[in-house]
Structure formats: C-alpha cells, structure tokens
Amino acid sequence: MTRLGTICCAIAFMFAVLPACSTAAAQASQETSVGSKMRVGTFDSRAVAIAYGRSEAFGRAVKSAKEEYEKAKSEGNEKRAKELDAEGSAGQDLMHKQGFSTYSVNNILEKIKEQIPGIAAHANVDVIVTKWDIIYQRPGIEFIDVTDLMVKPFDPNERTLGIIQDLLKQNPIPLEEMKNFKD
C-alpha cells in the first residue's frame, strides 16, 4: 500500500471508529449517572420568607428603618424621608411576593449562607433548590423536603410554624396576580 493509501485508511478509521467510541463512552457515563442516586433538597421559598419576616432580625431591621425615617422627618430631611418611605414600600412588596408567591428569596438566603452547607450535610443532600425551580428530572433522583431545616435558622416560634404549615397547604399566588395584591 502506498503512503497515501495508508493515510487515507487512517483517516477513514478515525471517521468510522472514533465517533462510535465516543458515543459508547457517553452512554456509559450516562448509565453511571442514572445508576447513582443524586439527592436533591427542596424547600418552599414562601416558608423561608415567612420565617424571616416574622424573625427578630427582621423586626430589628424594620424598627431601625422606622427610627431612621422618623429622624429624617424630625430633622426636616424630606428627601431622605421619601427615600426611606419608598424603600419600605418596595420591601413590603418584595416580602409579599416572596411570602405568597414563588419570587426568589436569595436576598434572605444570603443571611444564612454560612448555615446552608450544614443544612445540606444534615439532610444528606447533594444540592438544595426551591421546589419551584425544578423543570426536569431524570429518573432515579431522590428529592428530600428540607423546608423545615431552611426555616430553622430564623428561630421561628410555634405561631410562625403554624402559619407556615397553613401556608404550605395552599398553592402560591401566581406572580402575575401579585401586581394586584394590596394590604
């Protein structure tokens, strides 16, 4: 066989055999993935919002904001008072979306971010997501509800836990409808 013939055979081999090898490797990888059980912790974000919204930490933040507002008013700083009033209204709107719908609670989770790895370890889960973020799941994934563990860092009292339990029995309000939600 000529040198050109040898090169052509080698190229033909690469195009014929290597794709089959990579397909087999991908299938083996997928089979291994499907065979192992991934444990996913899920939580209802509304419960986290309610627990935080009824927590001492949130109460202190609201009290501080009210004091700052009153101080601005008493000093005649109308600009700052209006800013604080707008911040308060926006914060209340955000809490309603988080507590009654499926709006992100990432700003709240930021307050307990150091505790989340411990929550995952305690629940023996590989990942934690809100239950509203699951779009697809392959067979063999195990879901574990970690809502109670995600609420715990906010030290909810019995009344708050009761409110959360009642809330969990209800479907969330669609975000589109939250625009019309008023106190």
Can you tell me about this structure?
It is a single chain. The chain is mainly alpha-helical. The chain has one domain (38-178). It is built from nine helices and three strands. The chain has a three-stranded parallel sheet with strand order 2-1-3. The longest helix is centred in the N-terminal third of the chain and has 33 residues, at 3-35. It is elongated, with a radius of gyration of 27 Å.
Question: What's the arrangement of secondary structure elements?
Answer:
Blueprint: H1 3-35, E1 39-43, H2 45-53, H3 56-74, H4 78-100, H5 106-109, H6 116-123, E2 127-130, E3 142-145, H7 147-151, H8 158-168, H9 175-178
Helix pairs in contact: 2-4, 2-8, 3-4
The order of strands across the largest sheet is 2-1-3
What share of residues are in beta strands?
5-15%
Helix content estimate: 55-70%
Averaged pLDDT = 84
Q: Calculate the terminal CA-CA distance, rounded to whole Å.
A: 87 Å
Total domain modules: 1
User: Total number of helical segments?
Assistant: 9
Largest sheet: 3 strands, parallel
The tally of beta strands, per DSSP, is: 3
Morphology? elongated
Category from helices, strands and their pairing = mainly alpha
Low-confidence stretches: 2-34
Q: Which sequence of SSEs, written as H and E, runs from N to C? A: HEHHHHHEEHHH
What Rg, in angstroms, do the CA atoms define?
27 Å
Question: What is the compact description of this entry?
Answer:
Helices cover 63% and strands 7% of the residues.
Task: Please give a handful of descriptors for the protein shown.
183 residues; three-stranded parallel β-sheet; 9 helices
